[in-house]
Design brief:
With 267 residues, this protein is of the alpha+beta class. It is built from five helices and 16 strands. Strands 3, 4, 6, 8, 9, 10, 11, 12, 13, 14, 15 and 16 form a twelve-stranded mixed β-sheet that branches. A two-stranded parallel ribbon has the order 1-7. The protein has a two-stranded antiparallel ribbon with strand order 2-5. Mean pLDDT is 77; it is low at 5-69.
């Protein structure tokens, strides 16, 4: 398996709130009584965090810059098991034999690879097809206007109750593209203004609560496990696959598993 960090940055993990500049929120008081609604659900609050220091991507890993490659317009197979290529901007698709609660029937978009404060190489991603029961506006008074109706997705089991926004609007002030995905992180204020002005569609944006985090050995173990010829697979996919906010639990996983099956049958 080849891990490729690109020229990206990874966030320092000492912060309990910071993810992606102005697009990041901190989910506080998950069980606070004053966040309960009439339907009996406890709604966590979202608030903007203070900025925190960033760490450069690992220079100990192979640095491959494919920024000149075209943005993915179709599904591209990047290998499975130990032969898979993992880099920012790819989607990792779990095998049938994955029984972890979060990773079972999951498609994980990788948005950062690099070193944490302990100099350990880690991979961060969000599960793209695990919706919550709430819109982002129900979770936060900070997200207003047209974007407030976007569904909030459960990105994973790490993050100290953080949330983040991914989008495909290159005109927003939100940094560099993540790999070749056509997807960017951040720019929540610009996104709200653009969505309300009709410049972008709310469908260009997707919100995630928490994320998945893997150490290098964990990823190695995951991709080394092959049962009945089935293993974790790495894919490049169109940005609309990742940003689809109409997905039920496991829906994109099923769609991508079918794509993988078609690819293997064509070989």
């Amino acid at each position: 398996m080849m891990l490729i960090p690109f020229n990206t940055i990874l966030l320092s993990f000492l912060s309990v709130c910071y993810l992606g500049g102005a697009a990041a929120f901190c989910l506080r008081s998950l069980l606070s009584p004053n966040t309960s609604s009439a339907d009996g659900y406890s709604r966590p609050k979202l608030s903007y965090p203070q900025l925190h220091s960033l760490l450069p991507a690992s220079t100990k890993l192979q640095m491959t810059d494919s920024s000149s490659d075209a943005i993915s317009a179709k599904v591209r197979y990047l290998g499975s098991g130990p032969d898979a290529i993992i880099r920012p901007g790819v989607v990792l698709v779990s095998p049938v034999h994955e029984y972890d609660h979060f990773l079972m029937k999951a498609a994980v978009f990788v948005y950062a690879i690099g070193l944490d404060d302990n100099e350990d190489m880690v991979i961060r991603g969000v599960i793209i097809d695990h919706p919550t029961a709430f819109t982002v506006g129900e979770m936060s008074p900070n997200v207003m206007g047209n974007l407030s109706q976007n569904m909030l997705y459960r990105g994973g089991n790490s993050g100290s109750d953080t949330a983040m926004m991914l989008h495909s609007a290159s005109s927003l002030q939100s940094g560099e593209m993540i790999g070749n995905s056509g997807i960017y992180e951040g720019g929540i204020v610009s996104a709200m203004e653009a969505a309300d002005a009709g410049i972008i569609s709310p469908n260009n944006c997707k919100f995630f609560f928490n994320y998945m985090q893997f150490r290098e050995l964990e990823i190695d173990d995951m991709f080394a496990t092959v049962e009945d010829g089935d293993a974790w697979v790495s894919l490049e996919v169109p940005s609309e696959y990742v940003l689809d906010s109409d997905l039920d639990r496991g829906a994109m996983w099923s769609k991508l598993r079918n794509k993988i099956r078609e690819f293997r049958q064509s070989k």
